[in-house]
User: Fold Olfactory receptor from Rangifer tarandus platyrhynchus.
Amino acid sequence: MGRENQTWMSEFILLGLSSLWETQVSLFVLFLAMYLVTVLGNLLIILLIRLDRWLNTPMYFFLSVLSFVDVCYTNSTVPQMLVHFLSARKSIPFYGCVLQLLISLAMGSAEFFLLGAMAYDRYVAVCRPLHYTVIMHRELCLGLAAGCLGAGFMNSLMQTIITFQLPLCRKVVNHFACEMLAMLRLTCVDPSFNKVMVAFSGFLVIMLPCFLVLFSYGHIVATILRIRSARGRRKAFGTCAAHLTVVSMCFGTAIFTYLRPTAGSSAEQEKRVALFYAVVTLMLNPLIYSLRNKEVMSTFRRVLGKFSEKG
Assistant:
């Protein structure tokens, strides 16, 4: 019977964030503005890194990959949420739901691995500056980026398959997107095995990169404190501040959602945290990396000056 229900179910209904029309219109305007800032900000970062040869370094290469991942993630969930704000029927086809979970989970997982790779890059830059170009060569950077994306996709594929293999008895999803924990609440059977896999996957995808970040920044802080020049310490801290800010937001939301005891979690709390990550955190990422980075802002002014001269 479970399998028949799963095969017969052609769509899901997403409850979204509110059922009040006035609230939905206000949320549409707010999140549309944030969505445009996210997409345009990340695309601008990718463009600037491609245009300026001074930004052709490992740090900015990883930043461009991170911006690409953020654009893919936000486009997997936010456009549909915006459409649903103005729709009477908030439905998503079965296979559309599968694809949404696959892409969003793949990009989210890849982001954590990338943040770990970026922390290692900062560790080499600060702690072993004389060997930086030798260690962080082009092949290693390409391999790390490909490995992060590949690992994220494999994790997502595994989680998506075992989630949608379960018999689903309900079609109403208490979420604004097809999120994994929300989908597990629709099952006819005990999803304990899936929850164990979520915890195991969360350890590999979230905690291992988190440990790498903590290890890297532990050595970075120790190295910076040994720098005698106050100006040198400020410069070293400045190169890491933006990354550390983004790391805190991303890992904080993920640990709260996927690694805390299930007994203390609720659908509404998970929805709010997921919204914060999908909209707020991804919007702040390009702002943090651009406004707190003198090289990016300098490149932006140079490119803007060239276009104004041509105009």
